[in-house]
Amino acid sequence: MRNFKDLDPRTIAIHAGQHPDPASGACSAPIIQASTFAFDNCAQGAARFAGEAEGFIYTRMGNPTIARLEDAVCALEGGVGALSTASGMGAVSTALFGLLKAGDHVVGHESLYGPSRMIVERDFARFGVTSTFIDTTDLAAAAAAMQPNTRVVMLESPANPTMGISDIKALAELAHAHDALLLVDNTFATPINQNPLAMGADVVIHSMTKFINGHTDVVAGMIVFGDEALRAPLTRAHHYLGANMDPHQAWLVLRGIKTLAMRVKEAEANAMQIAAYLEDHPKVKWVRYPGLESHPQYALGRAQQRGPGSLMSFEVEGGLEGGRQLLDHLELMTLAVSLGGIETLIQHPGSMTHAAIPADERVAAGITDGLVRLSVGCEAVADLIADLERAFKHV
Ligand SMILES: *Cc1c(COP(=O)(O)O)cnc(C)c1O
């Protein structure tokens, strides 16, 4: 792989892993839809298994199309290696499986992606892993949660749906002082706006379902590590758990990733305008967006991220009914979970994803009745604001 270290992320997103096919000269990656790879002779097969010769063996353990995507995301994150997975949760579960053992303890951000928290709290618990979930935007709370057996500190920044920003450098130092590893789910910020490994994190996770693929048509994940010592345990977990990617899936993400930087920046410019519009709106109680000075960690966000991104949450007047009216009267924005697509996606946890949770528990977890989460896309911003304006008349 060419060295991309000194290049801008916008250039890396277009070129890393995208070299012409040596066999045909094709400028688009060939889809090597094969489960297994032939050896010239037994000695070559043995050398590949021993890791002494380059080359592929079996697609669960690696594949040329998938390797291109791993190279691309690895270069964007500044890692030493990357492992692609069938989904973002495939990345989370594989990384944790590779890093944890019975008796270990995990410190996690309290508003981690739901299944990421559940797999630690409920499933790894069945194998003797304990955990403490706190607000990692509060460094004192994180320090207090550390135990002698803490092995992994796990966070998302910005986090969902509070958009809280955690100090990655300080938390990496805290983790390392306790011989623990810092794992950052960088799905929201994307490698265009934030590189956790450069701030001391050990492992980065992506749900490439979101921004990296960006076209709302693939579920995929990636693990990137910053230290050679992590290659063996993570690769073993990846090979044995089998949450591996398919070559066609890799090809679709290789297609999407080329426009990652321009999508992220276009959506971010739209989001800045929409956040300002919402903050001034009489039917909006508050807006939580890292690009607004009203954000509680605005200064940290400016220092740590290259841009505020395109995700925000806001509270509509009128609680559950207000949220429902707003969403039911939108014509352009798509009512759907997920995020990071080229189209604007909006969801109302109180009446959609979190509707089954009793109201008091939901509110205690920060999901207030009128909270709306918005993933701004790349449409013309005037059309998006007009859509909101029309829908707000019904609130
Ligand atoms: C969506 C998401 C995941 C899970 O990814 P899948 O691709 O759906 O498995 C993990 N973390 C974050 C922050 C996400 O948004």
Jot down its keywords.
Aspartate Aminotransferase, domain 2; Aspartate Aminotransferase, domain 1; alpha/beta; 395 residues; 7-stranded mixed beta sheet; single chain; binds pyridoxal-5'-phosphate
What does this structure look like?
Helices cover 38% and strands 15% of the residues. The protein is globular, with a radius of gyration of 21 Å. The strands form 2 sheets. A 7-stranded mixed sheet has the order 1-7-6-5-4-2-3, with helices on both faces. The protein has a 5-stranded mixed sheet with strand order 8-9-12-11-10. The chain has 15 helices and 12 strands. The model has no long low-confidence stretch (mean pLDDT 96). By secondary structure, the protein is an alpha/beta fold. Helix 1 (9-15) packs antiparallel against helix 3 (64-77), helix 3 (64-77) packs parallel to helix 10 and helix 4 packs parallel to helix 5 (114-123). It has 2 domains: 9-257, Aspartate Aminotransferase, domain 2, CATH 3.40.640; 260-392, Alpha-Beta Complex (Aspartate Aminotransferase, domain 1). The relative contact order is 0.12. The structure holds pyridoxal-5'-phosphate (PLP). Pyridoxal-5'-phosphate binds next to helix 4. Residues 87-89, 113, 116, 156, 185, 187-188, 207, 209-210, 219, 221 line the site of pyridoxal-5'-phosphate.
